[in-house]
Amino acid sequence: MKHDVVIVGGGPAGIFAALTLADLGIPNVVLLEKGKDIGERNRLDAADMLCGWGGAGAYSDGKLTLSREVGGYLGEFLDEKALYDLLNEADQVYVRHGAPDRLFGDLSPDVEALAERASLAGLEYIPTRIRHIGTENCQAVLARMHDALAGKLEIRTGCTVQAVLADGGKVRGVRLADGKVLESRFVIVAPGRSGAQWMKETAESLDIKTKASPVDIGVRVELPATVLKAVTDISYESKLIYYSKTFDDKVRTFCMNPCGEVVTEKMAGLVTVNGHSYATKKSDNTNFAVLVSSAFTEPFDDPIAYGRYIAQLANLLGGGVIVQRLGDLLAGRRSTRERIAKCLTKPTLPKATPGDLSFVFPYRHLLNIIEMLEALEKLAPGVYSHHTLLYGVEVKFYSNRIEVTPEMETKIRNLFAIGDGAGITRGLLQSSASGILAARAAARRLNP
Question: Fewer CB within a 10 Å sphere, N or C end of the chain?
């Protein structure tokens, strides 16, 4: 049977493409996901962390960022109002499937005052509105989306796509790992973070232009929640940007988790650090990332390899994630278990190895991070404390960016590339919105 649409990938982008096609009544749609179904995934299994129904977002803390400036590049394809409306539309789909009603960060005199205080500290505050689903609620929301598609289209999990097929500049289907070919009038590829290399190879095979994205490398900062309470009470996740005095590099905060936990993340043989926060379960600490963006030109142009090298170095020295007190880093000494035990900030990731991050990070990165923490101290006294904990490394790999039209179509007619795996987005909500864009474009051509 020839399908109308084949969707490759069951993360947010692929799911929202499927939901949109189902709502529009498009028949003969199949979604192919190489990982397991939502109820079969196990967060303790490294292979399940990024693959399966829901993608990497299934084990995130589910932050939906309603901002044009954060989370991807859709602002390059849509005007401000159109993107704002699309993000709100995607957000409401999450709400209908069980996401909490509450939004954080609505504009108010308190938010304006926070932005002024940040400016005085040498920081740029990016206003964002965030809906926080919570780590413990993400899978339930994703399961409801799966149930909503029952009987409307076919979902195949444990199904790996080997290649996208095209003739004469037009897509004709996909070839599966078992050699079978599924013919289709349209193909929407949404491979997610775990499919970045597959997406790059697929683009090369079809002669689709791509460009390398920067890699973000840094630390996960953990401190008592009271230090940032005045900030997080106003803006649940503060997006703050700093340009270092020494190198003029862009440094930013990312994924702030009030009363959250520091966690490890395993991917492609690497152990890196991340942070979560739950909707109900609370810790005494707040954590957030401080990331330095690195891009390269010539002769080296492989930021992913560079990020992997830094992460591998931390794994080599610490056997995984390294933790260090800021006071020890500034004093030029490693942290030990005894020094961590005396720290006023009690680590929420006790299995991290006490060590010395100065053996891991290049001088440029380390100085950028220290300068950022000094600036944050002016905004929230206590950040630059001897007892602040730094975990390393945190690395954010971004897929090579696929060249697409405003409808998310590649140069291959009727082939669409969406989501984080295509380098188009960097977060749950914009990824979801890209799925809506591609699905609507395909539906318009199927039902002109």
Answer: C
